[in-house]
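Section 5.1 Outputs to date
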Amino acid sequence: MRKLSLHRVYGCSTAHRNSIIGLPDNRVACLAGSYLVILDCLTNEQRYLSFSAIEFLYISSSGLLMGVIDRFTHNGDTRIHIYSTKPIDLLCVIEPDRFGSFIGITINKNDNLLMILHNEPAYMITIQEMQIEFDEQHRFDMTDLASVRVVHGSVFNRMIKKEITPHVAFVSFCPYSLNLFCATGSALFKLYEIDNQNVNQQTVHFRAEFYIFTCHCWLDVNNPIEMLKDDLFTGTSNTNINSLSMINEKPSKIHLDSPSKSNQISEDIVLYLDICASKEILPYFIVSFREYILVFTPITVEPFFQIIARYCLQKIKEHQIDFETHNIHKMSYIFDNNFSFIYLLTDRNQIFRYKINQSNNNIELDEKHIYGFQAYKILSIGLCAHKSWLITLGGDNSIKIFDYKDNNREIISKYIPDNACIATGSDPYGFHICLAMNNCFQLYLITHYELRMIHQYETRSIRDLEMSQSGHLIAVITNNIIKIYSTIHFNLISQLRGHVGKIKQVHWCRNDSILISCGTDGMIYIFNIFTGMREGEIITKQYRYMGIAVTNDCNRIYAITSNSSIKIFNNTNLEQEWPIENGFIPSAICLSKSERLLYVGMTHGMIRVYTSPLKIDTYIDIPAHYSSIRRLLVSYDDEYLVSIAESAYILLFKQTINNLNSVSSQYQFSQLSIENVDIVNEQERTQTIFEYILVTKSEFDERKIKIKEIQTRINEFEAENNLKLSSKQLAFSKHLNNYSNIVCVLSCSLTMSTFSIDNCEN
């Protein structure tokens, strides 16, 4: 059966605070919409785990267990997935209980206690005892051990003289004890001790209502370190854990050494604070702050902590231009193969890895860039009409062209200094693409794996571009006017008018002679390019059109509207109106080349796949993104689907037959109406073949050089084989001569022995 599965993820997401974790065996896990991407740092291979909406990631201190909190309903209900990491295997799924949704988890150092933090207002903590056998069957058992309520009501803030409600944001077990754990958050810091099935509270008093804690770590059982909302952290030390509740002295405080100081720290800075410590790197602990990685060590005098090393993220090779500095979004520590590593995810969606080299009195970090695609977000994408090329334009003003079938081979990677905002797909030959700025757009030639601008068109207020199917025309959308330009003589051919609102999408058809447009004014127009006149119109002003998909003969138009419905027009006549169930709002639409599958992207990030003609229960929902889907594209051979949203990653789906490596195996087209879907063998499936008519001299020279290199390799291989055969023949001849001499000697000795025996007998 045919099915749609995730084939590749380009980029990663910073949608949540806990959006990256380090895994054993040189692997790292990051988020990309509804998928958890497990990346091998050595081979760059990817695996994917599919969820509804990931809220939280966690890796145990041993690195053997991984936890994922997934939101699976629109009401905010969450569940917990516990995985083993060697290999990645699902152990159990914990469904919501009477205490509410889950917002955090932590596992102790022996991997036998699981602590679950529930949602407000009580912020209940439940502790489960786990029994795991790491064998081939991965036997798993879990029983309830204890529970405690963290928040009992509001507290009085003596600084602002108001009552505030504490919140819990972070919980963790002490890695040096089996019965201590900590809970921190807004106006809250508490220590607890587990005594059999009882949980005893050990409160640390240092006017906690004044602070908002973002995270914490443990140096030992008597020294938890807490990161605060502003640019400082505090440490609490005592020799007796039972006397922590009696502390009245002020805690030690230290300000992070940063180049810029201000009395008011913005909210964005909160995202760039993180801290980690481990027994493998003691007595040091590591703090990430903005673009810096700071290594601290305890000292005996105030302020009791000292910075011994400071590292700044370096510019990576893909971005040699002097961009603004990376800010560290999240840091994750892992002890892997007798080495300590920290993985960093920056606000520009880049992943770095630091190897910690620790000597007697020093600690050093070796930086390595692991993974990255486009920074900030994907502005625009395009596909080549007859090549497996994907064109992307990112918020870092870089454009990338790569072959998604040829092992993601990069063809172009170029920085555009003119703040481009839109990129089109290339022509069928892969020669030209267009990039749009605010007041102009440029036509580029793809040659020698480079982009060369050949012409700049001057026009204002460009909102979108669409290259024609043959590549000789460009439709430029400027608010409510469509301008048609030529890529041959670079002149303005016509201006298409009629819309009174913003134009959302245009579509070329009938060998580039017809252009169909839709707008927020509730109108769909069918324009003749040669005459500049309207051949048809659809006027429905009671709702707005968000996008259209058109068949090859232009007879049928699929339109998504603002009232959550799909309208099907046949020659400008309304043929069918199909409401979108579950109250989903459509944001993008695309029709397959076979015209049998209709893809609709929703504002909450889901892709709904319909079969044509539309019938009851002839669709499936595929979780894809966190935010509204902006663009859906289908490849020339109808095998791949590309989607982007308001994010910095691209999802590439593939229609496969019995792909065992697929994660999204549940999204099978066999769930749909069978008569509307092709069910054929892979060997019998026909592919669209494109024959190149134009061959440039450079391509001919490159192929000639490649043929010469291959011939040279063949000659070298033959010479090497002949040499090996000759050496083996000589060695064999030498051994043969030795054996012949031995046989002759033995024969002579046998003859002499026989002669001697005969003489003795006589």
